[in-house]
Amino acid sequence: MPTLKIPTPLRPYTSGESTITLPGETVAEVLKALVERHPELKRHLLGDNGQLRPYVNLFLKEENVNQLQGLETPLTEGDTLLIIPSIAGGKEHRRDHAP
Amino acid sequence: MLPELSHEEIHRYSRHLLIPDVGLEGQRKLKAASVLVVGTGGLGSPVALYLAAAGIGRIGLVDYDVVDFTNLQRQIIHSESRLGDLKVESARDRLQDLNSEIQVDIYNEYLNSENAFEISAPYDIIVDGTDNFPSRYLVNDLCVLTGKPNVYGSIYRFDGQASVFNAEGGPCYRCLFPEPPPPGLVPSCAEGGVLGVLPGTIGSIQATETLKLILGIGEPLIGRLLLYDALDLSFQTVKLQKNPDCKICGENPQVTQLIDYEEFCGIPACDHTSEEWDITASELSARLKAGAPMRLIDVREPHELEISRLEGAELIPLGQFASRLSELDSAEEIVLICKSGTRSARALEILASAGFKKVKNLKGGVNAWAVKVDPSLPIY
């Protein structure tokens, strides 16, 4: 079964799990299994249209799945899918550091 | 014409001159170079220090903040003696103390769409040491519109990212992340924390990439994103492609000038929770003393409650909030609590959209409670 690597910012929604092995033969199937297991992840990863959010990227062996076959990209035993979210760092709002 | 090096400079940069890939000519390129470092915080500190030490002839520093006690855990350019001082002044003095031969320009202002072109004009390369999404998109767009490389770094807890965007025809930040997450969806370091050394690692990589770009050596991090996991001690790179549909560097760009980045990032012009939902620490204290029946819900992570907590507060971490709504009753008066009021505001949004009306957000969080009501508690 393919493995998903969960980045730190999303681990609060996976009860702290950093790697999760899930059944599925395509990226879409593995994501479906992931959000069924951790429903709170769904709004972080997928939009209402079921597509990946524009601030989340999935990589398979160095390649962005968008450059492969997107959510229909086939996965095989032992594949590792990396979730790469955008992270900004320090402050949430620029206005937070107004004096 | 590259500038000559004085005997003193030749002595100072001896360890560079010994490397054939740098040599005299390379060191003269560094002297001729100019770099703008946006942000003098966790990332900007090591970037600026190493660039100054390396002999970059002109360094610009942009920030609009003062040195705070909680900065010192990672922002190594500043020091205890400079608490409360302007960050750009504290940083400039440290850089000039390290290397008096170089020029350091300071801009004590937010980089914004109005001032960005003017501030960045004298510099060849821009280093993104910012700490928020609006600034990151601004730096990216500025680099694309002015044709300058964007040396990117970003950090969270134990995770870091680095890349060189918009260089030699490579992808830009928007090619990877066309849109920012809505406010609040991605936790910030101010809420989630960051290992103090992490920006040292990522900032050092940004400084290295900047030097490589100037020297024209090696394989710069163009078209690649470096992912660093300090816990696993793993470095991994993934390939980035230029996105033909990118709104700023694609085939049909729609963004042709700098925009309102706060609006683009969905940040409202005023505080994101309206004040009618707020309760101050003093009000809450008075109401509790008067015996008002209120349920206190702390939405922080369990380990944070060991630092400080309000007596009687129950824990429901924000990450579990939406799935534990059944534990709350809309007939009760509920006060939501976190460190400084940001995460609890988000929990409040969840409750409000579920129809809860009798909910308040403790303004300023448990830190405000420590200041106004219970000075025996620490502030973190």
Would you give an account of this structure?
- The complex is a heterodimer of chains A (99) and B (380).
- With 99 residues, chain A is an alpha+beta fold.
- Chain A has a five-stranded mixed β-sheet with strand order 2-1-5-3-4, covered by helices on one side.
- In chain A, a hairpin with a 2-residue loop joins strand 3 and strand 4.
- The C terminus of chain A is likely disordered.
- With 380 residues, chain B is an alpha/beta fold.
- Chain B folds into two domains: 232 residues, Rossmann fold (3-Layer(aba) Sandwich), CATH 3.40.50; 98 residues, Oxidized Rhodanese, domain 1.
- Helix content of chain B is 34%, strand content 16%.
- Chain B is built from 16 helices and 13 strands.
- Chain B has an eight-stranded mixed β-sheet with strand order 3-2-1-4-5-6-7-8, sandwiched between helices.
- In chain B, helix 13 links the parallel strand 10 and strand 11.
- The longest helix of chain B is centred in the middle third of the chain and has 18 residues.
- The interface between A and B is large, with 34 and 57 residues.
List the helices and strands and how they pair.
The complex is a heterodimer of chains A (99) and B (380).
Chain A: E1 3-5, E2 19-21, H1 27-37, H2 42-45, E3 56-60, E4 63-64, E5 80-85
Chain B: H1 7-12, H2 14-17, H3 23-32, E1 34-38, H4 44-54, E2 58-62, H5 87-98, E3 103-107, H6 116-120, E4 125-128, H7 133-146, E5 150-156, E6 159-165, H8 173-176, H9 189-192, H10 198-215, E7 224-229, E8 234-239, H11 261-264, E9 278-279, H12 281-289, E10 295-298, H13 302-305, E11 314-315, H14 318-321, E12 334-337, H15 342-353, E13 359-362, H16 365-372
Parallel strand pairs in B: 1-2, 1-4, 2-3, 4-5, 9-13, 10-11, 10-12, 12-13
Antiparallel strand pairs in B: 5-6, 6-7, 7-8
